[in-house]
Amino acid sequence: MRNSLAGLVDVCCVLVFVAIGRASHDEAAGLAGFASTAWPFLAGLGAGWGAMRAWRRPERVWPVGAGVWVSTVAVGMALRAVAGQGTAVAFVIVASVFLGAALLGWRAGARLVAARKVSAGV
Length: 122
Prior knowledge:
By secondary structure, the chain is mainly alpha-helical.
């Protein structure tokens, strides 16, 4: 998988998380509110990509995907706390589960597809 596509998929995972979360809490649909919720997690995602050098092998579940996931949640929550946004335990759990499933899930799926292509001789 190309690095730019992998990065785009990761960004989309975070944006879907934000969109679902804001919609489930009936928060305003404005761009400013969406951006306010998204930026800490996008910054955490960027930090994870840098720390894991994800551009080298972005499709790897371990350690790349796991590192990106943990960074996205940890840095995202730290930045939310600094910015005066909520970090309730339930929110941390939901964010961890959703982002873990999304950021690790697409990587696992991509690995399965690649493995099937190899075994099929494609």
